[in-house]
Design brief:
Length: 825
């Protein structure tokens, strides 16, 4: 009855209900605050944030942890707290500083010590440096996960690393650590994951690693470790992944060492050239998923003998490239892997063989061996899922049509550098992304069956015997990025609308053919074009105005019959004007499918012809217009191409002088102006071209003194011969009698110098007069300073007089004038 009365009373007093509601909200708010993280831990986190991102600095490209506000740090990004104690137990600050324009800085790990309950810590990819802060981190007694990878930590791994006794996961990969692996690492018996890859560690694997009995993943890739692989791995029965690649291990290795490891799935021992893989006939307890023995020594391994490898039924990737394998390829090997089988760079001989039964293989690389004969007709039926095959660099024969018909469903087909012959088929349905028939004996015209297909991104037919014209109706390649037809016998003109059918083109190489006529101005439509090589054809008329192709980096129009003048608008091409290397990431590799990449290779001049690919191609820029019929002056605007590395305009009919603006070509390495009709002097400013390694102005009409100093002191006489008026270089000193034009120029310079000297002398004299009489006028008009000056002079004279007597000098003074004379002995 009382409870009912109380409830009724409450409803009769609404102000009391409001008061109790506010009290309840306040209580819940206070309770919420009590569940926020510890205050000292919150302050520690804020101090860590300040060390990562100084509060008074604005830095682009950083994740500035905007969520790190308020009292409850358990809600902050990258912070994890315990469910009941609300202590910070996890901290993941990976890649916060990775995109920022920041230098590596030493990491103050003392900021972490208040986080006493921390269990996992991830600071990877943050440009942190200094020595490993093992001593500071060892105070975190509950820490079991530590990831400091992708930073700039240096020095040795401290012996005190075993103070981190609770660690189960330790990742120090991709740093700059040096020295030997410490024996103390073997004392952290709780370790399950250990990665020290991509450092500069040396020495051998410590025997103490045998104590890491719980280890599942060991990654020591890409260091400088050496010696034999010690017999410790038979103790590591839980091992699943083992990566010892890219080191300098030597001696013998047998998989019997790992025979009793039932969980082992991935082994990578590649790029240890002195490591000898022994034959293993045991049946191991494991079934591998990935095995990479590339660039090891398997010369003692006989694949024809069934054994360890033939018993691996779950292999997804089997990589045995460049491993000194020889003999014929056993049929079982072709069915050993379900996804990737790489056997390239060995000494396999004989014919291509078929597996015992059809396989699920996706990628097969048999390139750079000594395989011969023809392709079996039923080859493709045994590889119904094959998407990529590379058999280049062998001695394969047969008709090209049979190869193309056998692999119609492929993404990538590389048959280059063989002896395959015949005409390209007139009717063929291809689904290819990449086709390479370079360096074979293919004949005939280019049919529509090869070039009609929207998927094709790279078509390489270089160095065959192909003939006939290019017909625009045969091209409908909207995704084509690289077209290489060089080294054939194509003829005729290039159709004007051809380039409208290949709008995505980045590389066009048709050098060394018989093309004639004008270069179509429609080239300007190829806005993505970066490499254009039309060398060694019969193109004529003027240079095409390609100044709208702003991504162009390499232009080679040499050895044609081009006339008229060099257009001045090359300065509109941004990749040549930039004072840094161009971005040619898309040319480093032609992407095929999801995994495989093929490097774009470009042959270009640099004194001689060189092949550029990968990183070297991405840094290369150049213009070669040599051996044409170009006329007129060299445009001054060429000097604005600060990103240019090669400029060759030799063997033309160019006149006028060498532009003084060429001193702006600071990245230039090759500058060839030889065999023209240039006159005047070599601009002395060219000595500022510090990168210049090849220079020639031979066979012109130049005169005057050759610049001396820096790179110019290294060039031989051949760089200047054929210019009778030049002197001052090796073997031809300048005489005292100079040509009239040279004398006039020198006299003019002397006259200017004399005029400049007269002005200089006049300024010095005027300064002396003003200074001397100004001081005298000051003392004359100011009695106080005049008296003080004379008193100071008297004290100085008295002092000198006393010193003179003590050293054998006498002095006398008269009327304020003091003189000294040496006394005789």
């Amino acid at each position: 009855m009382a409870a009912t009365f109380s409830s009724i009373s409450l409803f009769r007093r609404p102000w009391l209900v409001m008061f109790l509601t506010l009290a309840l909200i306040l209580h819940l708010s206070m309770a919420s605050d009590s569940t926020s993280c510890n205050g000292s831990e919150r302050e520690a986190l804020l101090g860590l944030k300040a060390s990562f991102f100084p509060p008074n600095e604005t830095i682009e490209g950083v994740e500035d942890l905007d969520s790190w506000k308020g009292l409850n740090c358990c809600d902050w990004e990258g912070v994890e707290c315990h469910n009941t104690t609300y202590h910070v137990v996890g901290l993941n600050l990976s890649s916060l500083r990775s995109n920022a324009n920041l230098q590596s800085e030493n990491f103050d790990a003392n900021l972490l010590t208040p986080l006493e309950q921390l269990q996992y810590l991830v600071l990877s990819n943050n440009k942190l440096g200094g020595e490993l802060p093992v001593e500071e981190i060892s105070s975190l007694k509950h820490l079991y996960w530590l990831d400091l990878s992708k930073n700039s930590f240096e020095g040795k791994i401290p012996e005190e690393i075993d103070q981190l006794l609770s660690l189960r996961h330790l990742n120090l990969s991709n740093n700059q650590l040096q020295g030997r692996l410490p024996e103390s690492l073997g004392n952290i018996s709780s370790l399950q994951f250990l990665s020290l890859s991509t450092n500069q560690l040396q020495g051998t694997i410590p025997l103490s690693f045998a104590n890491l009995s719980l280890l599942k993943d060991l990654d020591l890739e890409d260091n400088q470790l050496e010696g034999t692989i010690p017999p410790i791995f038979d103790k590591l029965r839980y091992l699943e992944h083992l990566n010892l690649s890219r080191n300098d291990f030597s001696g013998n290795f047998s998989f019997s060492m790992l025979a009793n490891h039932p969980n082992l799935t991935i082994v990578n021992l590649s790029h240890n050239n002195k490591l000898v893989i022994l034959q293993t006939n045991d049946t191991p307890a494991f079934q591998l998923v990935e095995l990479d023995l590339s660039y090891s020594d398997m010369s003692k391994y006989d694949l024809s003998v069934p054994g360890f490898l033939s018993n691996q039924k779950t292999l997804s990737k089997l990589l045995l490239a460049y491993s000194n394998l020889s003999g014929s390829i056993p049929p079982w090997v072709l069915g050993a892997s379900h996804n990737w089988l790489y056997l390239h760079g060995n000494m396999f001989t004989g014919q291509l063989v078929l597996p015992p039964t059809p396989t699920d293989l996706l990628k097969l690389d048999l390139s750079n061996n000594r395989l011969s004969g023809e392709l079996p007709k039923e080859y493709h039926s045994f590889f119904p899922h094959l998407s990529e095959i590379n058999v280049s660099g062998n001695v394969l024969t047969g008709n090209v049509a049979s190869y193309l018909h056998a692999f119609q469903g492929l993404d990538m087909l590389d048959l280059s550098v063989n002896k395959i012959s015949g005409n390209l088929p007139l009717e063929l349905s291809l689904n290819l992304l990449f086709l390479d028939l370079t360096n074979n004996q293919v004949t005939g015209n280019l049919p529509a069956s090869i070039t009609y297909g929207n998927r094709l991104r790279a078509l390489w037919l270089s160095n065959n015997h192909l003939t006939g014209p290019l017909l625009s109706e045969n091209f409908n390649l909207l995704q084509l990025e690289s077209l290489r037809l060089d080294g054939n016998s194509f003829s005729g003109t290039i159709p004007k609308n051809l380039f409208l059918r290949i709008p995505s083109l980045k590389v066009l190489n048709i050098r060394n053919n018989n093309f004639s006529g004008s270069i179509p101005v429609e080239l300007e439509e190829l806005s993505n074009l970066q490499v254009l090589i039309l060398r060694e054809n019969r193109f004529e008329d003027g240079l095409p105005v390609m100044c709208m192709v702003k991504r162009l980096t390499i232009l080679d129009l040499s050895r044609n019959n081009l006339r008229e003048s060099i257009p001045p608008c090359f300065q509109n091409i941004s990749s040549w004007v930039q004072n840094s290397g161009p971005s040619l990431e898309s040319l480093n590799s032609t992407r095929i499918g999801t995994e495989t990449s093929y490097r774009e290779v470009v042959s270009f001049t640099k004194g001689n012809n060189y092949d550029y690919f990968g990183l070297t191609l991405s840094l290369m820029t150049g213009i070669d217009l040599s051996q044409n019929q170009l006329q007129g002056h060299i445009p001054t605007e060429l000097g604005l191409l600060k990103g240019l590395i090669v400029l060759n305009i030799s063997n033309n009919h160019l006149t006028g002088s060498i532009p003084a603006s060429f001193d702006q070509l600071r990245r230039i390495e090759v500058l060839d102006l030889s065999n023209n009709k240039l006159e005047g002097r070599i601009p002395p400013q060219l000595v500022l071209l510090y990168s210049l390694s090849t220079f020639s102005v031979a066979n012109n009409n130049l005169s005057g003194v050759v610049p001396n100093g820096f790179q110019f002191s290294t060039f031989s006489e051949s760089s200047y011969h054929g210019n009778p008026g030049l002197c001052g270089f090796m073997g031809k000193p300048c005489s005292t009698t100079l040509p009239p034009s040279e004398v006039n120029e020198d006299e003019e310079e002397d006259s200017i110098w004399e005029k400049d000297n007269l002005v200089l002398y006049a300024v010095i004299a005027m300064g002396f007069i003003v200074g001397f009489w100004g001081v005298l006028a000051f003392f004359f008009l100011n009695m106080k300073w005049r008296t003080l000056c004379f008193e100071t002079m008297d004290r100085s004279i008295s002092s000198l007089s006393l010193r003179g007597k003590s050293r054998g000098y006498s002095s006398f003074s008269s009327s304020g004038v003091t003189s000294y004379s040496v006394l005789g002995k």
